[in-house]
Amino acid sequence: MDILIIVILVIVILVCLGSLFYFLTYNKYQDYIIRINEVESIIDNNLRNKYDLINRSISLIKANVEIEEDIFEEIIKLRSRKIGNFELDRKLNEAYNEFIGLKEKHKKLNDSEELNKIDTQIKEINETLTTSINYYNKNISSYNKLLKSFPSNIIALLCKYKEKLFFDRKDMSDEDYEDFKL
What we know:
Blueprint: H1 2-64, H2 73-78, H3 85-105, H4 113-148, H5 152-159
Helix pairs in contact: 1-3, 1-4, 1-5
């Protein structure tokens, strides 16, 4: 009788410890998922704001100087395309570099208070984006480590969690070394 009680007690303790481990690990996954989703939202909003600012600068630039060539062609094409955040970020950085080049080429643009304000806002957005992308990648890295390490990978299998890609869409778990983009 005493052995039966001890066995039942050991089983109950093991079930409680297993449940505790499950809930703690599940909560850790949820914490990373929430962090990743929040920072994705911040990145989305900042990219949208940066796009709007660059888009707004087109008419201001054309109003201040006569430019024969088309400017910000890629940004204008983006209006009708659906692309991911990483590609959008790259296109917006190219457009911002074009914006800076136009300001250097046409010194009259530096006199525009509105364009200078847009430039300052884009610089602030770029700082926020850099910080947010670093935070995003850090949390993705921690999430993926948790996903691959034992025994938390068992919880990941039970909950059907999948590996997430870094902001640059580089898949570190495959053998494709060509998916790194400059």
